[in-house]
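In this supplementary section we document a worked example of the pipeline. Step one takes a protein sequence of length 199 as its only input; no multiple sequence alignment statistics are reported here. Step two produces a three-dimensional model, which step three serialises into structure tokens for compact storage. The input and output of this example are shown verbatim.
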Amino acid sequence: MRRPINLLIILIVAFVAIFLWEKLKTFNPFGTEEASTTHNIVLKEMTTLGKIELANFTFRDVVEQEIKRSYLPNPKAILIVQGNAVGCIDLTKVKAEDVATKNDTLIVHLPDPELCHYSIDHKNSKIYDTQYAFMNEQQLLNEAYKSAESKIQQSALEMGILEQTRKNADLVLRPILENISGKKVVLQFRLSATLSAPK
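The serialised model returned by step three reads:
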């Protein structure tokens, strides 16, 4: 009889020990804890948006950045940077006098395209390699990203983002305006119209 009783006692003790161990793992001597976050948000500015984005250029650049020193080795970094530039037209600049009707044609004078914004896509950019950068790494990376962002702006303009925005305006806006007005629509840009106007 003793052996089954001893076995039963061992099982009960083991069960109690496991139960207490599970409780101790979640035991908090300071009571229940709850995360608490306080926000004090204030609306700083409200802006009316009227810019329609019509062209998006995506770039990838391999940037080699270096800080030149007089004595110590020059810190260097190689980054693979991705970024984009967006061309748009600001429709808030269109006034009543910019829209005219001639027979069955609607003539709309649009403001010239502009480079709305350009930026680095940090999510898809990465640091490929660094050398001697343990003391100046942040400065090195900041300079590299700054240079890359400036290059994106320059490249977008050189590669014709404004002209592409102009073409896309005709592809996107003209059919919409023709559908709304029921007329043939001609889009003209202010600078282009000025250049082509007789003197």
